[in-house]
Amino acid sequence: MVKMALLVCLLFGQNPFVLLNIPTPAVFSWALQNKMYACLMVFFLSNSIESSLISTGAFEISVNDVPLWSKLETGRLPSANEFVQMLQTFTTNSNMNSAARF
């Protein structure tokens, strides 16, 4: 999400630091002047960071401190369908538990 926001800001020449009332870093000013090179750098560096984080094996999904998925236990990442089903099951169980309290 941060990667996409940064790419959009660079492509459209927007400076988010002005909105935050903080001085614009020199790196971002350079990136605004060299959009194509900066976008490629952001894209490839962020993908490298993302892949190294995923390859560590530490991928956990939890909601309200309730573990829903552990790559360490299953040995794989959840598919999109499994992820949606997991969230639907969690919200259904949460709704049933909150209804039981009343």
What can you tell me about this protein's structure?
The chain is mainly α and 102 residues long. It is 69% helix and 9% strand. The protein has six helices and two strands. A two-stranded antiparallel sheet has the order 1-2. A hairpin with a 2-residue loop joins strand 1 (60-63) and strand 2. The longest helix has 22 residues, at 80-101.
Topology:
Layout: H1 2-12, H2 16-19, H3 26-33, H4 35-55, E1 60-63, E2 66-70, H5 71-74, H6 80-101
Antiparallel strand pairs: 1-2
Read across the widest sheet, the strand sequence of neighbours is 1-2
Most strands sheet:
2 strands, antiparallel
Order of helices and strands: HHHHEEHH
Overall pLDDT score:
84
**SSE-based structural type:** mainly alpha
Separation of the first and last Cα atoms: 38 Å
State the helical fraction.
55-70%
Beta strand count:
2
DSSP summary: helix tally:
6
CA-based shape = elongated
Strand content: 5-15%
User: Over all CA atoms, what is the radius of gyration?
Assistant: 20 Å
Poorly predicted parts? none
